[in-house]
Design brief:
434 Repressor (Amino-terminal Domain), 2 domains, single chain, 6 strands
Length: about 280
Amino acid sequence: MNRKELNPEASPVAAFGARLRSSREAHRWTQDDLAARVGYSGRHISAVETGRKPPTLRFSRGLDATFGFAGTAESFERALGEIRNGSLLEGFPEYLGHEARAAEIRLFEVGVIPGLLQTPEYSTAIEECSARRGTITPEQAAERVESLAERQATLVRRLPPIVIVVLDESCIRRPIGGAGVMGRQLDRLIEFADQPDTLLQLAPYTMGERRPFNRLVNLLTLPDRSLMSYVESQTHGKLDREPTSVLPLMRAYHQLQAEALSQAESVVLIQQLRKGIP
């Protein structure tokens, strides 16, 4: 049997595969032996070991249960997190950690519903399109959808954060995934607006040049009342804690809210758009 030499320094995925092989061989298991224990095929084990297939959360957790690494610094799930973070824009992985414990979250988005409000179908449509373009693999697309669900779950806690969202009108008018997917996504927005710790507003096209932001802006108020911002372009993300940078963004966000439709007006517009979708 030809044995491919592995280079764990090549990439996080390669390091994952090399560690998987060494853990398996330490138990003197064949690929088929390990496959039977985690519920995958031997071919799948081989593909992950050699970096031809990226690991998924389900697969990583199965390995941890098999090898006894769950909840430890050696866990494969933790290694998977490093792979995920390596594909995210700079600053965003750290931002997610702060978002999970923030007291208040303020979001602004153009063109697409922000991740915290996306339905699984909506996010799947976006990620599967990226896979079809060849930007990511189908496995990575599924992993991103699963990761988003985990991110949303962090907000379900005993003292949930206040979540304030202002969407450019383009977010609700840009069709994603077909009529059924978009209709259910609009239903999700209406449900979100009805929750006790949320506020949803639309920035209508008629705001024109008065809209202060042209790209995604995330603002966090942490439990100690300190502020943090995260903004990004197509290729770069920036996490900022400096008051001289964050306070002007917060001021602009308040101006945005003052110019945007009220939540009641926003929900009416979404409901009107929803009626036109079968």
